[in-house]
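Collaboration report, partner site 2.

Our partner group contributed sequences for two proteins of shared interest, and the home lab folded both. The records are reproduced in the order in which they were received, starting with the first partner submission.
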Amino acid sequence: MLPSHLECKACGLKIVSYSKLNACGLGGTFTATSYADPVDYFEDDFRDRYAHLEEDNNEP
């Protein structure tokens, strides 16, 4: 990805446009990575599919 703007909430500095960021040495490419836990992703589907089943602990 290429950055398009920078805003510092602490000091209020705003740099808008890639060319200005690149001139400041802040225009390098970067990678954003996201991770989705399968349990969180499929939890609603799992709950809906098996909600009607009763718990069976196999106890006499």
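Second partner submission, folded after the first:
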Amino acid sequence: MASRILLKLSGELLSEREGFGINPETLSRIISEVSELHNRGLSIGIVIGGGNIFRGRSLIKDLKFPPPKAHHMGMVATVINGIALETALNDAGCPALHFSAFPVGTFAGIYDRDEVLRGLESHVVILTGGTGNPYFSTDTAAALRAAETGAELLIKATKVDGVYDKDPVRFPDAARFETITYQEYLRLGLEVMDQSAVSLCRDQQIPILVFDFSQKGNLEKVLTGDLPHTVIR
């Protein structure tokens, strides 16, 4: 098992079936699993998306907002989720720190690599605000933060059990890859993880593990090899 991981959580995971907001039971389950691994000595950074509150692409399409403004709203949404994660972790007795890529007053510290590295020695560190720039996804932010913090593994938590050759929801004959190279992933144009994020991980030689985090206990199971998943490397 890696000693330091970067966990990428989508905002949609927090909303569960509601599709919007934060489901208390789901949040509690995620906190319990992260806390357990932290207590065992695993160094954990978390990058959280904001799709359960705002999705920049939807705002561009439906409200005709200029892309930078829509992306800014999505970036702020990740901070809201980060506050929830930090609060719930600390309330559960798991020390957590929250850093944003842009200033948000006293709600979170401003991202500073040295501060984050010090924090990772004893805390779960939540990283929000994406990269701090529009046009970059939180997948790309996760790849960037994984590289900056020396994570040995980037874990992409989703609602599917890995990377498929086509959409498994639409195509019953879709086949899951157990492993796939960065180059093959990019060549096939697969979309579970943004191509820019995969390219960055390829350049920094950071493996990406994609798994289904919708069931209790799956985070520990996937790290011990007891759960179907895909590794991009």
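Feedback sent to the partner group on the second submission included the following. Residues 109 and 188 are 39 Å apart (CA to CA). Residues 4-232 form a domain with the Carbamate kinase fold (CATH 3.40.1160.10).
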